[in-house]
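Re: the 57-residue chain
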Amino acid sequence: MNKYQHKRGEIKDNAIEALLHDPLFRQRVEKNKKGKEVMQGRVKIVRRVTGRPVVIG
C-alpha cells in the first residue's frame, strides 16, 4: 500500500480528523458526460472554430 503524503504539517492529536480536512478529501463537482448541456458546449466549440453551428452526435 502506498503512503499518502498529507499537507497538514505535523499531526499531533487526531490523525483521522486531520486527514479529513486534507485536500485529498475535499468536495468535487462532477461534470456531466451526457445530457443537454454537454451537447451545447460541443456546438459552441465547433461554432467558434468553423464559424457555423454543427451538431455532433
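The CA atoms of residues 8 and 15 lie 10 Å apart.
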